[in-house]
Design a protein that fits this description.
single chain, 185 residues, mainly alpha, Hypothetical protein af1432, two-stranded antiparallel ribbon, 10 helices, 2% strand
């Protein structure tokens, strides 16, 4: 059986190489590594029997901002361009998560827990390289990016989604989500 070329998952070492190859700024690299640690704090404390691919979570968390550095100049939507880049590189499933790390599509609060929800939520809990509350992260996003009312409204809508995702994830964990995340260094 041959591996589907668009279903490859980069290793953590390959992710680090891609982060260097695409010249991610050091602060964005630190942010991405912290998002990975928060994602793993969740993934590694889920109830037994859940079908979460830890390797996809690691790769998507590390690469979620792969085009963020260049987007600071080009003003492109980095979630979209990051997903496109990863798809071109043959990492289709990881690309699908990266594309949704800013705006989560098709949230199903009653469905199974998905890798995309873990990475989306972890990103909302990491400001720069520090773990913060969703409220603190939202205040920072509004301050830095809400140049027009539409963007501010989208950030506030994302807050509602992030809190809903937090409740969903918490229901699948074998320990309190805050306790798991508090253990991250």
């Amino acid at each position: 059986m041959t591996e589907n070329i668009t279903d490859r998952i980069p290793t953590q070492i390959q992710c680090e190489e891609l982060m260097a190859e695409y010249s991610m700024l050091p602060n964005i690299v630190l942010h991405s590594r912290q998002v990975m640690r928060v994602s793993l704090a969740i993934t590694d404390n889920l109830k037994d029997g859940l079908s979460i691919n830890r390797d996809i979570v690691i790769a998507a968390a590390l690469l979620h901002d792969i085009t963020k550095t260049r987007s600071l100049v080009t003003k492109e939507r980095h979630a979209v361009s990051g997903g496109a880049l990863l798809r071109e590189l043959g990492f289709g499933r990881v690309a699908g998560i990266v594309e949704q790390h800013v705006i989560l599509r098709n949230l199903n609060l009653e469905g199974r827990l998905e890798e995309v929800e873990i990475v989306y939520y972890a990103d909302k809990r990491v400001m720069h390289d520090k773990i913060v509350s969703i409220d603190e992260r939202v205040r920072d996003l509004i301050k830095r990016y809400a140049t027009v009312e539409d963007i501010r409204d989208q950030i506030l809508k994302n807050k509602v989604y992030a809190l809903a995702v937090e409740r969903k994830i918490a229901g699948f964990m074998k320990m309190d989500i805050r306790d798991a995340i508090d253990k991250v260094q």
